[in-house]
């Protein structure tokens, strides 16, 4: 039986690790810092036209100043529902309605709340690392299966190193993102 080259699909592993990073960025965006960001309303769904709809599909979301998010709701009949969804979302901001405009004044964060948010950010980062390590384990399992199919020692070492390098880069990216997010949260 001729020995054939056995490849490990590192591109698929990389895509999965990138997916964990993208999910982390989305979670970080929903964390409220002292600065206004349109991302704060992204996770909020409003019951509109018989289905749950994201706020950014019901109006224009703007950030006219560092501590204010303004939503211009296109359908006046939905202003109350959008306002209610924001109140019930748990983002801790009291909407102020003025006709079709809903203003979200972003309150100053106190020290205690900032510390809490850095812990939440760290938790999100740890979840991303767990996802990345799971992808690494899948990659190493593929190498073990390939070994059983006759992969050479040299190839095993090569692919193990390649998977570990992807993992190290992804973990470093998570650490860097966490550091930046925590600095942003603690910035007064």
From TrEMBL:
Alphabetical list of Gene3D superfamilies matching this protein: 3.30.1360.40, Ribosome-recycling factor
Primary location class: cytoplasm
Top-rank taxon: Bacteria
Regions that span the bilayer: none
InterPro entries in alphabetical order: Ribosome_recyc_fac (IPR002661), Ribosome_recyc_fac_dom (IPR023584), RRF_sf (IPR036191)
Keyword DNA repair: no
Function: Responsible for the release of ribosomes from messenger RNA at the termination of protein biosynthesis. May increase the efficiency of translation by recycling ribosomes from one round of translation to another.
The protein's name in its UniProt record: Ribosome-recycling factor
Gene transcribed to yield this protein: frr
